[in-house]
């Protein structure tokens, strides 16, 4: 039976953990050749091994996506390993809660380096392959890419920027058949959430507005949407901001 990602090659960042790992496993099980990248090289290798153990094809590499040269090399390594690149999933990212007054220039810059600059470097490097193969990009933004969130100025600004990159690329390349979409999760049960300590003196009412529901999504819920956006089922979906947040951004 034909699988959704037969003969497709995907480069997935953040593949060591959480949504990136769930997406890599899912795409691998649906026929994709998956190149797993993460700053945690051992974790990326473990995900690739799990894909191969299940009968799929996968490679892996350690990479800090804040480094433009490493991003270019990552695309070259993917094409070197599998001969092509059809799907780029920019999933790696980090966040955290911090009162605005306590944010530092270094913290602000690192947030942008990983959450925005990395996806830009990778998208630019992947462009020739993706245009030639009518491929697509899925960026993982956040509810914080669609609405203001207290105690998260750097993270929220970085995810809004990623949404802007998504929309601009969708318009610039949509007529050439390259699709660029953003999946916008709400709170999801991954190690990422462990970094979200409520700042001292934070207003509980503002914290309660971060999520409509009291529970968290599973990483597989987000992987489902990423895989849909990356698949040919979503052939006419371009520049879309796809919420998976239990209704948080609805009002
Ligand atoms: N978990 C949530 O509640 C939530 C909500 C909305 C959006 N997101 C977004 O989802 C994405 C995935 O997060 P997750 O929840 O799966 O978290 P996670 O911590 O489980 O996974 C993130 C992965 O990114 C990797 N990473 C971090 N910095 C990197 C860098 N510089 N270079 C390469 N890899 C790097 C980490 O090593 C980790 O494996 C992130 O972009 C995050 O902002 C998460």
List the helices and strands and how they pair.
Layout: E1 9-13, H1 18-29, E2 33-38, H2 41-53, E3 57-62, H3 68-82, E4 87-90, H4 105-132, E5 136-140, H5 153-173, E6 179-185, H6 204-208, H7 219-230, E7 241-244
Helix pairs in contact: 1-2, 1-7, 3-4, 4-5
Bound molecules: nicotinamide-adenine-dinucleotide (NAD).
Task: Note down, in words, how this protein is organized.
By secondary structure, the chain is of the alpha/beta class. It has a single domain (9-244), classed as Rossmann fold, CATH 3.40.50. It is 42% helix and 15% strand. It is built from 7 helices and 7 strands, in the order βαβαβαβαβαβααβ. The chain has helices at residues 18-29, 41-53, 68-82, 105-132, 153-173, 204-208, 219-230; strands at 9-13, 33-38, 57-62, 87-90, 136-140, 179-185, 241-244. A 7-stranded parallel β-sheet has the order 3-2-1-4-5-6-7, with helices on both faces. β5 (136-140), α5 and β6 form a beta-alpha-beta unit. α3 (68-82) runs parallel beside α4 (105-132). The longest helix has 28 residues, at 105-132. It is globular, with a radius of gyration of 17 Å. 49% of the residues are buried. The model has no long low-confidence stretch (mean pLDDT 97). Nicotinamide-adenine-dinucleotide binds next to α1. Nicotinamide-adenine-dinucleotide binds at residues 13-14, 16-20, 38-40, 43, 63-66, 91-95, 114, 140, 142, 185, 187-188, 190-193, 219.
